[in-house]
Amino acid sequence: MADYLDTPVAGRRRRFMRIDDDAVGAGAEKVARFFGTGQYLMWQTVIVIVWIALNAGGWFIWKWDPYPFILLNLAFSTQAAYAAPLILLAQNRQEDRDKVTLSADRRRSEQTKADTEFLARELAGVRLAVGDMVSRDYLRHELEDLRGLLERLEAKL
């Protein structure tokens, strides 16, 4: 054990096997994705129909799961016991990805807003500068006034 907080503790050996969370999560997503397909529902329906037909019908001699189909119910319960956590794990991973995407979208949105505000200020500055510029008609009128003034001065001389 470390005597001080800044001294690292020697690593402990793991007694159990090491589990890669990403690999388990990716596998859970694949299973959850498969559970949501029509192919899975079709195969499960076919298996259940065959199971019931073989165990309830009179043509098969060895009935491994007679009428209340307890073994079939156990299989469904086991499937549900594994399916629910796998689906929740896949949803949690998707939620984590959504958070990262939302964060990136938020940053992009903030940058876009800042760029838009900057461009709006620049545009307002350009409009003010253009408003201070002399228009062609105003300049023409002033030049005509100066020409008239020069003509009067020449006439006096």
TrEMBL record:
Pfam families: DUF1003
Keyword Membrane: yes
Endpoints of the signal sequence: none
Transmembrane segments: 40-62, 68-89
UniProt keywords, alphabetically: Membrane, Transmembrane, Transmembrane helix
Name of the molecule in the record: DUF1003 domain-containing protein
Organism: Corynebacterium pollutisoli
